[in-house]
């Protein structure tokens, strides 16, 4: 039978609730909150907590909302560690490497794809991530993309059809024909299993015109746009995303003043993915410039076998603080509330009444330690809908 639970003895609670007047993270010191029926029912200072059926003592740890990953490519098979090693020896990253994964992904069974998705979603979870968007995009045929989104839909509610990632081998030199095939055959079928439509609008991938055609077809089938843009070069990805009122445009490394202005006057979130820039030795995006212009910034890990084979949002927070010039508070907000906004969700990314009880406890007194102690596994407990789904024995000692 469902019962209410009081979480107490929290040294620092990040609520992301603007109604808590303590800066953008809505921090409450010496806090407590109550979970009822999988949702947050009450939040406040520990001394004023009402009674609940059960009590969980977090022993002076920090508690924050689960990370919201708004960009991952978990529908894949195969390993590209050799390509990574070559890059670290000076070879340049090009979008064409995606074709290596296409070959392997096309021959995978549903069960193999599902096992892979679950494996990496579990990795995400153990590091504090309670929501993961999952993209297809390594099939690039109608049959393989439909298979990808169908399997992904059994693992997460946030499924993206990446209809145009890179034109596969059999369409070499015939990209327009690939786009037409995607519009006529792939999108109508795959739309039944996806929520979002995505496109890689970039030199070496798809042009502005081809990307526009894909997004238009996705919208006609009820999907909401998101865009990979401005990752490797200056280009039209950002303006295209704004034109389509996309939920987010992701990577945003090479931006003109017009791109930044357009984002600042839009509902489109700019998602930074520093794991990809780290593992391709690319420039980092200038998140400071975006934030100072008033753009909403989200932060993700972008787990994929080519450019960013990490599921560690804490690692990405550390890079964002060190090299994207974000403050620790801004990076934590971007990985929680920012990710939620990039998925147009208001039930996650916060610890305030009515939100889903998705949260984590850190082996640290506050959230700053995520950037201050890079590479250290600080996440000691993760709850999803009020249920402890990952937790160390140290955390549970007091509550045995
Ligand atoms: N940028 C495009 N897609 C992926 C990488 C794809 C790959 O190289 O496999 C990304 O988000 O970085
Ligand atoms: Zn991507």
Automatic annotation (TrEMBL):
Gene3D superfamilies in UniProt: Metal-dependent hydrolases, Urease, subunit C, domain 1
Gene Ontology CC: one annotated term: cytoplasm
Cell compartments where the protein resides: Cytoplasm
Cofactor note: Binds 1 zinc or iron ion per subunit.
Enzyme class, first EC level, given as a word: hydrolase
SUPFAM superfamilies, sorted: Composite domain of metallo-dependent hydrolases, Metallo-dependent hydrolases
A Gene Ontology molecular function term of the record: imidazolonepropionase activity
Keywords assigned by UniProt, alphabetized: Cytoplasm, Histidine metabolism, Hydrolase, Iron, Metal-binding, Zinc
Residue positions binding N-formimidoyl-L-glutamate: 138, 304, 306
Residues holding 4-imidazolone-5-propanoate: 80, 138, 165, 231, 307
InterPro entries per record: Amidohydro-rel, HutI, Metal-dep_hydrolase_composite, Metal_Hydrolase
Domain Amidohydrolase-related span(s) in chain numbering: 63-389
GO biological process: L-histidine catabolic process to glutamate and formamide; L-histidine catabolic process to glutamate and formate
A Pfam family reported for this protein in Swiss-Prot or TrEMBL: Amidohydro_1
Positions contributing to Zn(2+) binding: 71, 73, 228, 302
Pathway in which this enzyme or protein is active: Amino-acid degradation; L-histidine degradation into L-glutamate; N-formimidoyl-L-glutamate from L-histidine: step 3/3
Domain of life: Bacteria
Binding site for Fe(3+): 71, 73, 228, 302
Reactions the enzyme catalyzes: 4-imidazolone-5-propanoate + H2O = N-formimidoyl-L-glutamate
Entry EC number(s): 3.5.2.7
Cofactor: Zn(2+); Fe(3+)
Biological role: Catalyzes the hydrolytic cleavage of the carbon-nitrogen bond in imidazolone-5-propanoate to yield N-formimidoyl-L-glutamate. It is the third step in the universal histidine degradation pathway.
Assigned protein family: Belongs to the metallo-dependent hydrolases superfamily. HutI family.
Protein name: Imidazolonepropionase
Species of provenance: Rothia amarae
